[in-house]
Amino acid sequence: MLKPIRRVVTACDANGNAIVAIDGSPKNVKVRKASGGLISTLIWATDETPADISGLNDRAEREVGVGPSARGSVFRIVDFPPTTGAEAMDNEAVIREMGISHSAAKEGEAVRHPLMHRTRSVDYAIVMSGEMDMLLDDSEVHLNAGDVLVQQGTNHAWVNRGPETCRIAFVLIDAEEPAKSGKG
Question: How confident is the model at residue 107 (pLDDT cuts 50, 70, 90)?
């Protein structure tokens, strides 16, 4: 069992003084059954750039898909139990559960793994504990606690082949569709 997440959010009060507006466990926690029982905790989300940082509202008390809104961002922590039963998982159900509008499958091809998906975002991922394999279209990379990853709108699947739950912090920021040339 992983340590509960404590979220501290600061803001400015009516006099412009810095205060702690929120201190405690986030309430927006989802168990993703189609994705093998991973637990996704929404920490914060914005809908615009530059972000609106006024007010004391909890910007995580909302329904959002995996990816950010147009010009927005999403910060979440995901606990991935060891991946089992992948052969029984349904990629379409995974995509629906994540709130993604398109499949990671290339036209006319099957996905490499049932957890394959893609968001139109630049994603910053920090492995906080455990270990994880990130599958890409034709390769994979193994990540350990302390590793960081920058993902730029690529097809991928998170597969925990380790013996313990892996916790990863993700920040997703809306982006343009990636160029297919790979230049730049």
Answer: low
Measured distance CA(83)–CA(68) in Å, rounded? 25
161 in any annotated domain: yes
pLDDT at 147 over 70: yes
Instruction: Provide the residue type at 79 as one letter.
Output: D
Q: Is 5 part of a structural domain of the chain? A: no
CB atoms within 10 A of CB 82: 15
Whole-structure pTM over 0.90, yes or no?
Answer: no
Domain span holding position 119 = 29-174
Residue 158 belongs to a domain: yes
Query: Is-contact 52 46, C-beta < 8 A?
Result: yes
pLDDT (mean) for 108-137: 89
Torsion over CA: 130, 68, 108, 93 (sign):
positive
CA–CA distance, 60 with 9 (Å, rounded to integer): 11
Which one-letter DSSP state was computed for residue 117? B
Compute CA distances 51 → 19, 48, 59, 61, 132, whole Å.
19, 5, 11, 17, 31
CATH for 114: 2.60.120.10
Number of domains in the chain: 1
Residues 6+ positions from 52 with CB-CB distance below 8 Å: 46
